[in-house]
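Record copied across here:
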Amino acid sequence: MVGTRQLNLFLRRLGVLQIDSVNVFERSHYLPALARLGAYDRSLLDRILAGPAMTEYWAHEAAFFPVTDLPLFDWRKAEYRDWYAARPDSFPNQNPEMLSWLRSELAEKGPLRASEVEHDSNVRRGPWWGWSDVKRGLETLFRTGEVVAAPRTRFERTYALPEQVLPREVLERSVPREEALRELVSTSIRALGIGTVSDVADYFRLKSADTVSALRDLEDAGSVRRVQVPGWGRDAYLHTEARLPRRIEAAALLSPFDPVVWERARALRLYDFHYRIEIYTPAPKRVYGYYTLPVLIDDRLPARIDLKSDRKAGVLRVQSAWAEPGFVDDDLPRIVGLLRQAAGWQGLERIEVADWGTLTGALRGALS
């Protein structure tokens, strides 16, 4: 049984949980725990993420992470402030009255979602994903650190003044830029186990030069070792706590935004798995599907599957399924097990397989 203890350990180990709004199968931030712990009660994770120990910011894209790590991004907030200040046409320079009014609204009313702000400018512009000026203003203040995230409501970000939601120790903590970068790089290499400079830098979207400097400091401190991996063609760094298991037994459906595959070059180097998400690709041009999940079996990625939770019909729909060159027959029953686990986790009664992909026929037969 997966409980809050296991979920908290998982969050500490991963260090960051990317947020994405796509909900065709399940929202991305729920999937890494499913991959590592198996089926679990999503409401437990919801409570942890909404609790005082967690927050969100632009870490690796928008992401949840421990609130105690928020000061590690002060330098990033300062860079955003400098970027805006240097551009006369930036939103804060063009809309100082709007930002001042938003600060006053939060001070008077407390944490608010953008949809709760009553203002003539709170109207979407352009296509459906276009932001209103109110949303743009709140996001600007969020990036620069003048506001922070409060617990979400129905997945919509809630904005607050820092003193309204952050604990005193976080408000008062100041971390010099170099120290913050070392801590972030340490978290990255511990979570990855091994990686190149670009792998480690991508974890928190750091610059390569900053990552190299931090890795050298960690190497001097004995936390990482520089190593060579055949075929990689560049230096790699190994965390000293990383261990090579005698045997790897794993089976998981991976989110497109799971750290195992979110750095696409690393996925190609480690697993010979060329991966691109096709959400924004026009349907006729998609190669594999709308929201294709890599399938992890032991130390391989032998398949990819496009899933949709049809909650109204009670069906987990396999929109497409594809075998990779490393696929073996023994993978099939394990993938079927993953699909059945996913359907049960989603509360769906049936699994239906479409006709698109090299693996769909075998899956349909195995599920019948």
Observations:
- Confidence is low (pLDDT under 50) at residues 126-130.
- The CA atoms of residues 167 and 367 lie 51 Å apart.
- The longest strand covers residues 300-310.
